[in-house]
Amino acid sequence: MQSVQQMTANDIEPSWRAVLRLIAFRPWIFLLSSAGIISFYLWPLLPGLFIRQLFDLLSSRTPLTNDPQATIWALVAVLIGVAIARSLTTLAYPFGEKAVMLIVETLMRHNLLRHMLGRPGAQALPPDSSPGEAVSRLRDDMGHISIFMTWTADPIGQVLTFSIAFITLAQIDLRITIFGFLPLVVILTLVNTLNSRIRRYRQAAQESIGQVTGLLGEIFGAVQAVKVAGAEAHVVAHLHQVNEQRRTATLRDQLLTKLIDAFSFGAANIATGVLLLLAAQAFQQGQFTVGDFALFASYLGWMAFVMGMVGGYVTKYQQVGISLRRAVALLQGAPSLRLTQHDGSVRMRGALPPVPTPAPQAVEALRTLSVTGLTYHYPDSERGITGIDLQLVAGQFVVITGRIGSGKSTLVRALLGLLPPQAGQVCWNGQPVADLTAFMSPPQVAYTPQVPRLFSEPLRDNLLMGMPDDQLQRAIYHAALEHDVPRLDHGLDTLVGPRGVRLSGGQMQRAAAARMFVRTPQLLVFDDLSSALDVETERLLWERLASHSQHTTVLAVSHRRAALQRADQIIVLKDGQIAGQGRLAELLETSAELRELWRTEKDDTGHSS
Amino acid sequence: MQAVAPSYRHVLATYLAPHRARLALLAALMLIDLALLLGLPRVVQTFIDQATSGAALPALLTIGVAYLAAALGQNWAQVGWQYVAHNIGLLATNRIRTDLTMHCLRLDMGFHNSRTPGELIERVDGDVGKLQNFLSEFLVQIVLNGLLLVGVVVLLFLLDWRVGLPAIISVVLAVLGAVLLTKLLAHYSIKERQASAELFGLLEERLSGTEDIRANGAVAYVLRRHLERSRTFFRTSVLRALLSVVSWRSLNLAIDIGAIVALAIGAFLALDGTLTVGQVYLIFAYTTMLDQPIETLMRQLDDLQQATASMSRVQQLFAMQPQVGDEGPGTSLPEGPLAVELRGISFAYPNDDMVLRDVSAQFPAGAVLGVLGRTGSGKTTLTRLLLRLYDPTAGTVLLGGVDLRAVPIANLRARVAIVTQDVQLFSTSVRNNLTFFDPTIPDERIWAALDTLGMGDWVRSQPQGLDTVLATGGSGLSAGQAQLLAFARAFLRDPGLIILDEASSRLDPATERQLEVALTQLLRGRSAIIIAHRLGTLDRVNQLLILEQGQVLEQGQRAELVRNPDSRFAQLLRVGLEDALA
Question: How far is the C-alpha of A498 from the C-alpha of B115, rounded, in Å?
Fold first, then answer.
């Protein structure tokens, strides 16, 4: 574990290289974006030059031109022309900056998602992450990276603007230029030194926000418990307390931010004040004209604004580093290059490539599936399975049973490659399976988890998930779902999942079974249907399965008698190891553990009569 | 959903009224900010006019110093009112949040069952958060920037009406444009936010179901759905950016051209001596001040659109009324164990089929009743009626001989406790989890309860005892420990009736034995209703009620039912189909 983390940490490429690779993904849009950003800084320098001429024309004691009126007309025409041209260049924003950010974010999300879904299903996310937290990485961290990419143009624009403004003004009066820029530089330095404190305050504010939403989530997740305990007022009082903590933290953050904003953007007025003091003498001596003053005031104003946008590049670059690390952590040890690679599948226009469906005859039909020495232990825990050997023959109905925590689900998940086995081998018709995670999926194998997930899509899409719909009706019937579908408002087109109609636990499990049947796999794996199905429905499902597809092989976790009695083979697990294997009648003779399971149940009935 | 026209006045009156002093301070600081903003260019004008007419150096320097002082003052005033406004907004929204949470908690379970916690967080925190700006900055910004625009135009008119004219035309055009365009843009912003919510919603759901995706070979399909949603988000996002840039720039252009024309007219007036050069500079300075207020107004109007949507959602929520509520002063339940009587109970969830049909049954005080039935037979619904999470569609529930509808809800829920299989734990101290944040319960009572239930030693072994903070969702606890905590919760309230809903399923035998001991303590001297999936759990039961499809299939003394070979219960025992009860 330690060594893997060590390796990943060393493996992360420098942020700038990752950013360069992202730029290379869509270089032309990036160039358009950069041109737009640089011109944003440069445009406001132009009108100042003509304003200066206008004021010099008005204030000079000797007429500068023969026809001042014509000159004014000409200046007005130029100024309006500049304003229009400036407006047109802002069109670079939606098609450049905005577009390139969205494209690059999509690329990175796609790469991360592809990698996570390619991992063993139960370990798609790093152990310290949750889906909600991973989404915040896929949204916010991708945003930090992509916006930094467009920020690469800002310093160029800022330095250019600064240099041009400085040189232009210095040619008029070097001394005033130097002292005029001074307050800007002082304020900029001040603001930058406050940056670390802002970050601290901001972080505290963010944490306090998380506490409020976390508490609200808990309250609304436990409404019934709160109501029946009559604890509404106490819970709300606690919420108020947490809310007030957030207010204090947010206010502190806001005060500092506003203060900094006021001084960096308000620096224009302060610089103008300094300019007045400096220019007073020069004015008197006739070395400084009203036109010069107008140019200085306009440039210093714009410089102050630009200053407000400068700064924090180091911080921003560090933020990119943090975001990259958080993103690469989702790759769980895979090379960080995966994040930024592009193979042409991410495009914003044109037809998307069709979804490949698994070829039905890709592998030899199942005759036997044998497992030898399969071992998996959860990190930092005793739990797991050790040295599991078992063999399935095509057409068999095999039941895995055992107490809670005996390792039933772990065995199924390890066998399917949803957890990476630490030892052992799985052979398909005697041939060792090299990549369990990839192989143990349709059309070879499909699986219904104990608590299946449906997604917020129409029921039909949830069942098909990209498969053609020719098997749909049969699958629905086999899953004993045929009476439920017409009862839904829009039948198969009903939106289900978290944002749709809520199905009962039993309906979800049968829908998941139907989803599995659509894929016509050779081996069906069920993890404990009994957790949500009543015994009759479970029996019905087994019967339909048996009568309609004798060739299908079934591996099911169950403790139901209906399943145990039907089984061609029962595997009894105890403390992660096989405690018995065979038919029910044999096991009742030979396996103490199964007898124990059986006896507890017998005791129940015996006791009662 | 019916849109409710939000009544801003009501919200403002209710939630801002307590902050009159802060509001007055806010107004004062804002007016200082405004006055200084409008005054600064006048100082420059004076400077230029004095300088060009050859005034003495000290006079010019004094003007310069005055300008610097005013500029700093304006900065402080601005920071000041923004801080005060922010504080008012936070204070007001925190009040709304607590009021709204309280209101939601009082609403029926039907309301909560049709909404996820995430949705309610979005209402209570997200929507209310969007009101914050409205309650703090919106009015100030509208007033300040409105006055700034009016002030600039008036001052330009005072210079010369010919200068004021182009300014007022461009300002009116830009303000009208801002109002119209904000409406148009709002539509596209909503679409963009929807596309974003759909994209990230998709990701969150898929990442929660990686096993399902992986084991059903749907990776390629999910990747494609991600790309489809990303494209929709891309299109809506770029379109909105385009529209917003075009509208924003058009307004700016209108202001810019107005400013250039005003400046030009000023220049011509200066040529014939009507205006001084300083006054022309004043025109230049004032007209460059017009961009910012228009932009701020537009942003505020956009915020208002969002706030309007949020406000109407919040008010819709406030307008909802619980169906179940107290009527009149009511009758309290008697002390001690409670007798249970159901008289012809029928019940259907809203827009659904009947779950219970004419259920009648009667059990004496102190009875331990076992309720059996398949999934969907109405067992759980029955317990909800006993707690008045719902009222029956027909019939009457009586506890201790009192009609539940006459019992104040607070009294009912103090006397009836329920322990469900899924124990909801908060990520806070063990103490808060046991008392539900009730600070009036002394630690001695908590320890007494824990010791009685045989879990005192376990809590003492925790690093901080009662102050030990449980992980989110109680993830560090075993199912059995969570159950025991739930028992202690119920025990602390000393109820007359305990309802135990499927509390013993999914546990291993050892944990179950531990729970048995605690359960015996919990049930001592109380009535109880136990809903069980397994016959073993029914050992302690002396009365039985078997439900099927919402109707009473059988009821009576357990001992009698066991003796009667024709009883359904006896049949169940013979067949040994303990699963049939699930």
Answer: 10
> What pLDDT score does A316 carry?
80
How many angstroms separate the Cα of A433 from the Cα of each of A359, A394, A416, A445? 18, 17, 11, 13
CB–CB of B426 and A138 under 8 A? no
Find where tokens 């090379």 sit: A335
Per-residue model confidence (pLDDT) at position A550: 65
CB within 8 Å: B237 and A102: yes
Note the pLDDT tens digit of each residue in A420-442.
Answer: 999 999 999 999 998 898 899 88
User: Do B486 and B461 touch, CB atoms closer than 8 A?
Assistant: no
Chain A CB within 8 Å of residue B467 CB? no
Give me the torsion for CA of B474, B478, B484, B490, rounded to 10°.
Answer: 30
For the sheet with A523-527, list strands across it.
A445-448, A523-527, A553-557, A397-402, A569-574, A577-582
Structure tokens at A476: 């629905």
Task: List, for residues B272-289, the tens digit of each pLDDT value.
Answer: 889 999 999 999 999 999
- Closest partner residue to B534 (CB to CB) among A244, A301, A604 is A604
pLDDT at residue B574 in the model? 67
Beta strand B402-403 with A445-448: parallel, antiparallel or unpaired? unpaired
Distance from CA of A33 to the nearest CA of B (A): 13
Q: Cα angle vertex B189, ends B184, B195, to 5°? A: 135
Given a contact cutoff of 8 angstroms between Cβ atoms, the answer to whether B94 and B118 are in contact is no
The domains located in chain B, with CATH, are 8-319 (1.20.1560.10), 340-581 (3.40.50.300)
**Span B525-582, pLDDT tens digits:** 899 998 876 666 677 888 989 888 888 888 888 888 888 888 888 877 765 544 444 3
Q: Which of A57, A229, A418 sits opposite B211 (nearest CB)?
A: A418
Token duo for residue B340: 């249970």
Q: Say whether B424 and A534 touch across the interface (CB within 8 A).
A: no
A223 CB neighbours in chain B (<8 A) are 104-105, 109, 112
Q: Is this structure's pTM higher than 0.90?
A: no
The token duo for A390 is 């078992």
User: Across the interface, do A116 and B374 touch by the CB < 8 Å criterion?
Assistant: no
Query: Most distant CA pair in chain A: distance in Å?
Result: 123
For residues A459 and A496, is the Cβ–Cβ distance under 8 A? yes
Q: B381 — contact with chain A (CB < 8 Å)?
A: no
- Which of A473-482, A597-606, B292-301, B368-377 is predicted most confidently? A473-482
Structure confidence at residue A601 as a pLDDT band (50, 70, 90):
very low
Cα–Cα dist A403/B508, whole Å: 7
- Cis upstream peptide for B509 (omega within 30°): no
Contact B406, B451 (CB under 8 A): no
Residues of chain B contacting A51 with CB distance shorter than 8 Å: 263, 284
* CB pair distance less than 8 Å for B215 and A515: no
DSSP-derived pairing of the beta strands B340-348 and A553-557? unpaired
Contact (CB, 8 A) for B61 and B102? no
Which of chain B's residues have a Cβ under 8 Å away from the Cβ of A449?
Answer: 211-212, 215
Q: In this predicted complex, what is the ipTM? A: 0.89
| B contacts of A131 (beta carbons < 8 Å) | 204-205, 207-208
- Specify whether the CB–CB gap between A111 and A297 falls below 8 A: no
Closest residue to A355, CB basis, from B68, B220, B489: B220
| Phi, psi at B452, each rounded to 5° | -60, -40
pLDDT at B1 over 60: no
Q: What percent of chain B has pLDDT over 70?
A: 93
Interface contact flag, B375 A506, Cβ < 8 Å: yes
Q: What is the DSSP string of A196-235?
A: HHHHHHHHHHHHHHHHHHHHHHHHHHTHHHHHHTT-HHHH
Is B284 at the interface with chain A, CB within 8 A? yes
Helix (H) or strand (E) holding B421: none
Q: What is the mean pLDDT of residues A479-492?
A: 90
Token pair recorded at residue B579? 């699963």
